């Protein structure tokens, strides 16, 4: 997998030691009283062990941890960018399991401890491009989704993979509104799901995934708009026909099944040619497939990407 990640100078990435030293200082300075008032997930700081860095990375500067964890789209906790960080403390991430079923020879329920040990954890720095035309660069931790799918042995009828997120309005107060038809559902073609870049993430910045970022386990598909990367996943279903997704159901003319980052295909209400990198003043050009064209463009050879948006 690592050979597929564009290699870039490590000097352009914020040293992990600097990040942790700064964070440790901030935690000490905050003190126990202040800490008790902040979202537990942000200050928990539980580090993941035995994480190896991917051999390659990106030439982009990392988005600061604070922005990564406080500027989020996670409508299960509200539609404001700061709502997930403020409201996700109610999410209980243990016990947790994912049911994998459908067109597989070995359906199985994996608990979180099994999932953490299923394959070696790897840190991968990926670009995240939101359909709203902003972007980040995040050091995720996880392993290829293909590692999990191989365990259940997909049958020849498995053409697509559906992802279902947790539905529990008591834990996810945003689900008390009809913003979307809950639970959140997303989908990939089987070859997209099996692609080495498709990540099953359990952490970021060296730590257990914060609640507001999709804890305890989520998808990261770096060449697609961010909403394709389902969060807080509880079920993975391999199916023969293309599944309906939450955003296709909500706005079929605006949100397609593929949702590949494509500067040549605008959203009906705004351009996708440029993006605002969080922390930068000027907008930058958006790259086809979010800069991962060399790795994934062949998946769509011969397709009309203006129709299959």
Question: What does this entry look like structurally?
Answer:
The chain contains nine helices and 13 strands. The chain is globular, with a radius of gyration of 19 Å. The longest helix has 20 residues, at 16-35. With 309 residues, the chain is an alpha+beta fold. The strands form two sheets. Strands 1, 4, 5, 8, 9, 10, 12 and 13 form an eight-stranded mixed sheet that branches. Strands 3-2-11-6-7 form a five-stranded mixed sheet.
Strand proportion: 15-25%
* Main sheet record: 8 strands, mixed
- Rg result: 19 Å
What low-confidence regions span 5 or more consecutive residues with pLDDT below 50?
1-44
Distance between the termini: 26 Å
Coarse structural class: alpha+beta
Number of beta strands: 13
- Quaternary state reads single chain
Q: Tell me, briefly, the overall form.
A: globular
In short:
The protein is an alpha+beta fold. The protein contains nine helices and 13 strands. Helices cover 20% and strands 21% of the residues.
Helices and strands in order, then pairings?
Elements: H1 16-35, H2 40-44, E1 52-53, H3 65-70, H4 83-87, E2 97-102, E3 108-111, H5 112-117, E4 122-129, E5 134-144, H6 145-152, E6 160-165, E7 185-189, H7 190-193, E8 199-204, E9 207-208, E10 218-220, E11 233-239, H8 246-250, E12 274-277, E13 284-285, H9 293-296
Parallel strand pairs: 1-4, 2-11, 5-12
Antiparallel strand pairs: 2-3, 4-5, 5-8, 6-7, 6-11, 8-9, 8-10, 12-13
């Amino acid at each position: 997998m690592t050979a597929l990640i564009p290699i870039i100078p490590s000097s352009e990435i914020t040293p992990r030691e600097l990040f942790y030293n700064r964070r440790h200082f901030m935690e000490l300075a905050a003190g126990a009283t202040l800490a008790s008032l902040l979202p537990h997930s942000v200050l928990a700081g539980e580090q993941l062990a035995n994480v190896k860095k991917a051999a390659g990375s990106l030439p982009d500067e990392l988005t600061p941890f604070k922005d990564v964890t406080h500027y989020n789209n996670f409508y299960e906790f509200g539609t404001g960018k700061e709502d997930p960080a403020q409201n996700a403390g109610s999410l209980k991430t243990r016990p947790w399991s994912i049911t994998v079923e459908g067109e597989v020879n070995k359906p199985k329920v994996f608990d979180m401890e099994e999932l953490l040990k299923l394959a070696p954890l790897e840190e991968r720095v990926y670009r995240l491009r939101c359909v709203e035309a902003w972007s980040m660069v995040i050091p995720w931790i996880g392993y290829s989704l293909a590692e999990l799918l191989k365990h259940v042995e997909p049958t020849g009828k498995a053409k697509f993979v559906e992802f279902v997120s947790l539905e529990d309005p008591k834990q996810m107060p945003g689900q008390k509104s009809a913003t979307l038809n809950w639970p959140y559902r997303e989908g990939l073609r089987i070859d997209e799901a099996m692609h080495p870049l498709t990540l099953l993430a359990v952490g970021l910045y060296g730590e257990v995934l914060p609640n507001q970022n999709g804890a305890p386990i989520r998808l990261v598909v770096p060449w697609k708009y961010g909403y394709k990367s389902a969060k807080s996943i509880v079920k993975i279903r391999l199916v023969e026909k293309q599944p309906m997704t939450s955003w296709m159901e909500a706005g079929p003319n605006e949100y397609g099944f593929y949702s590949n980052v494509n500067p040549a295909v605008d959203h009906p209400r705004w351009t996708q040619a440029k993006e605002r990198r969080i922390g930068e003043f000027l907008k930058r050009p958006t790259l086809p497939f979010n800069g991962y064209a060399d790795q994934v463009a062949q998946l769509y050879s011969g397709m009309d990407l203006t129709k299959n948006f």
